[in-house]
Amino acid sequence: MRDYCIRTATPDDVDGARSVMLDTVYRDFGTGYVPHWHRDIVDLHGAYVVPVRHTLLVAVDRRDGTVAATAALDSRGPAHPPNPRHVAERYPSGETAQLRRVYVRPEDRRQGLARRLVAGLLDFAVADGGYRSAYLHTDPSVPGAEAFWRSLGKAVHDEREEPGGGQGIIHFEVPLP
Predict the structure, then answer these.
(1) Among 20, 53, 125, 158, which one has the highest count of C-beta atoms within 10 angstroms of its own C-beta?
(2) Boundaries of each N-acetyltransferase domain copy (predicted)?
(3) Is 73 exposed, middle or buried (CB count within 10 Å of its CB: 0-12, 13-18, 19+)?
(4) SS3 52
(5) What is the bridge-based pairing of β-strands 133-138 and 96-104?
(6) pTM for the complete prediction?
(7) CA pair distance 97, 54, nearest whole angstrom
(8) pLDDT tens-digit readout, 52-102
């Protein structure tokens, strides 16, 4: 089993984290980079490193120093639109720790990295003291995503159950420790 260090991203980690994220949106999501959805990926420093209530965590392979996985948290709740109004109202900005960009390179999966990174994000949210909930949404067509998030939290809205299927997204709340 490989040895990884889970830590807050340093400026030296930002390019590696961006690479993991861009590879994921191209390979796993099939969308490629879409500025409206992925703007934060281009400016990870401004989106997650600089703001005090935001964070970017990385899993770094100790053998070669490469970033194997990422996870981010920000204080913005889900926007309506495109998300359902009742979801946006339930998770307002400033009170909601939104979990984002929990991505693991394929060759580093099944090592517990995503779970460890999410635990780190939740600890960060609790230490902040101002978050009352942790929220995320996921695309269930990504292999393993739905099962992973169901193991950690509770689905609060499944757009696949809406007439027309909505965006096909599942919205989750993950309990804060």
Answers:
(1) 125
(2) 4-177
(3) buried
(4) coil
(5) parallel
(6) 0.95
(7) 9
(8) 999 999 999 999 999 999 999 999 999 999 999 999 999 999 999 999 999
- Identify which of 155, 152, 147, 156 has the alpha carbon closest to the alpha carbon of residue 177: 152
Identify the three-state secondary structure at position 1: coil
The DSSP code sequence of 83-100 is: S-HHHHHHS-TTTEEEEE
Number of residues in the chain: 177
Provide the terminal-to-terminal Cα distance of the chain, rounded to the nearest Å: 28
Residue type, 149: W
Alpha helix ranges (H) inside the chain: 14-27, 35-42, 44, 85-90, 113-128, 145-152
Yes or no: say if 81 and 28 are a contact pair by the CB < 8 Å rule. Answer: no
Query: ω before 143 within 30° of 0 (cis)?
Result: no
Closest C-alpha to 149, from 128, 175, 129, 120? 175
